[in-house]
Every structure is written in structure tokens, then in C-alpha cells.
């Protein structure tokens, strides 16, 4: 990636709209280019100063539950059912064609749209003490940009729970809750370790409504991996 590419994409990068691979390429360029790094820093400061002025109000619990229910409940139209049946019937042919194309054209650049979905993608992200939460949330956002149908669970324990407490702010003084709420709307499930809260004498009411409690963060991660088939990533 060069300076022109970076200057074109830096706004989308700051808004977490780039896919993971493009974001990584841009970050590598920022490490090597002082001019682009200064541009990025200036735009980030402007964005954060403006966002800090915005007021954020959490949706009432009843509204969040109603929206969640509407997102997941409902009969598919008949046309959609027929399409799904056709896709299932032809999945083997599509897979064979995709593999044949990959073998015949080994020089093609990878793109997520070229892959064939073989099953639901599920990932559990582990946030603990020492985690750079701002980078972690950006990684989750980039993951969903590349795989919007992925099921993502974020499990926080130890000092990693702090960003899910009421009033928590990032290094620029902006609250974490709006960003967490946006990810929650996109289906990300935030879970907080009850053992951590008990050990640190933190009440359950200190946790923001977008997150829920689990008895043990480590046990929850183990359960998701062994019983529900989640891949694991520690951030």
C-alpha cells in the first residue's frame, strides 16, 4: 500500500469500515510513513474530539429485547426457502468448481468472496489483563466486515472486564459503551466473568446492559470451544 492508497482509505479505516487484510496493509504503511501517520493522527484526534461531544443513551431493555427478537424470529418467504433448497442441492458442485479454479489459477489474490462457506464461522475473543481493548474492538469490527455472518463472542475476565463497566473510557477519553453497543447490534455477544467481579468487589449493576454475566470467564471459553465448536483468539 502506498501514500495515495492510504490517504484514500484512511477515513474508512477510522470508521472501522475496511476488511481485516486491508486494515493490516494500511497499518503497516502507517508504521513506515511519517506523513501518513501524522495525517491519521490528526484525523483520529478530530474524530475523537467530536465524538466525545455526542451524548449516548442506552436503549431500554424492553426495546433491545424486542429488536433482538425481530432479528432472529420469523418465517422465510417461500422464494427464499426455494433458493436455500437449490443452494443445498448444488453445494457439492460449487465446491468442486471453486477448488478447480483455485488449482488452475494459483496466482489469484485471495478475496473472501471467492471462498465457499462450509459451515457457520464462530469465534470467541478472550480479553484479559494487558489487552489493548481499543485494538481488540477494532479487530472484532474488521472480522465482521470480512465475515458479516460470523458468530462472535467476547469473553472478558480479570482486568479485561473494565471496558464493560459503566463510565469506562478509552485512552482519548471517549466512552467505550457506544462502540460496544454498535457491535452488540451486529450480533456480538459480550460476556463478563462473575468470579472477577466478586474477587474485585464490583457489583453486577456496574456492568453495562450490552454485556451479560457468566459464572467463570475461563470456563465459558472452554465450554464454547469444546461444546459449541468456537475457534479461540486471545487479544
Describe what you observe in this structure.
By secondary structure, the chain is α/β, with parallel strands linked by helices. It has 9 helices and 5 strands; from the N terminus they run αααααβαβαβαβαβ. The chain has a 5-stranded parallel beta sheet with strand order 4-3-2-1-5, sandwiched between helices. β1 (122-127), α6 (133-146) and β2 form a beta-alpha-beta unit. α2 (20-32) crosses α3 (34-53). The radius of gyration is 21 Å and the shape is globular. The two termini are 25 Å apart. The model is unreliable at 105-118 (pLDDT under 50).
Helix count, DSSP H or I runs of 4 or more residues: 9
Which percent bin holds the helix content? 40-55%
Q: List how many beta strands DSSP finds.
A: 5
What distance lies between the first and last C-alpha atoms, to the nearest angstrom?
A: 25 Å
Let me know the average pLDDT.
81
Structural class: alpha/beta
Order of helices and strands: HHHHHEHEHEHEHE
Strand order in the largest sheet: 4-3-2-1-5
Unreliable spans are 105-118
Radius of gyration, in angstroms, nearest whole number: 21 Å
Fold blueprint:
Blueprint: H1 3-14, H2 20-32, H3 34-53, H4 61-72, H5 78-104, E1 122-127, H6 133-146, E2 151-156, H7 177-185, E3 189-193, H8 194-199, E4 211-214, H9 217-228, E5 231-234
Helix pairs in contact: 1-2, 1-3, 2-3
Amino acid at each position: 500500500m502506498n501514500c495515495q492508497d492510504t490517504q484514500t482509505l484512511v477515513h474508512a479505516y477510522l470508521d472501522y469500515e475496511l476488511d481485516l487484510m486491508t486494515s493490516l496493509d494500511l497499518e503497516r504503511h502507517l508504521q513506515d510513513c511519517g506523513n501518513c501517520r501524522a495525517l491519521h493522527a490528526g484525523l483520529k484526534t478530530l474524530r475523537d474530539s467530536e465524538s466525545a461531544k455526542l451524548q449516548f443513551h442506552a436503549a431500554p431493555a424492553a426495546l433491545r429485547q424486542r429488536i433482538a427478537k425481530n432479528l432472529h424470529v420469523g418465517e422465510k418467504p417461500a422464494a427464499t426457502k426455494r433458493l436455500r433448497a437449490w443452494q443445498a442441492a448444488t453445494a457439492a458442485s460449487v465446491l468442486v468448481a471453486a477448488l478447480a479454479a483455485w488449482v488452475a489459477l494459483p496466482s489469484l489474490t485471495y478475496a473472501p468472496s471467492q471462498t465457499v462457506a462450509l459451515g457457520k464461522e464462530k469465534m470467541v475473543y478472550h480479553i484479559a489483563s494487558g489487552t489493548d481493548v481499543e485494538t481488540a474492538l477494532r479487530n472484532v469490527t474488521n472480522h465482521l466486515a470480512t465475515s458479516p455472518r460470523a458468530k462472535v463472542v467476547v469473553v472478558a475476565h480479570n482486568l479485561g472486564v473494565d471496558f464493560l463497566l459503566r463510565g469506562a473510557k478509552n485512552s482519548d477519553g471517549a466512552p467505550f459503551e457506544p462502540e460496544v453497543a454498535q457491535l452488540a447490534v451486529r450480533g456480538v455477544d459480550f460476556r463478563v466473568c462473575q468470579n472477577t467481579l466478586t474477587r474485585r468487589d464490583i457489583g453486577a449493576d456496574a456492568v453495562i446492559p450490552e454485556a451479560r454475566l457468566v459464572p467463570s470467564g475461563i470456563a465459558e471459553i472452554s465450554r464454547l470451544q469444546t461444546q459449541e465448536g468456537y475457534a479461540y483468539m486471545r487479544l
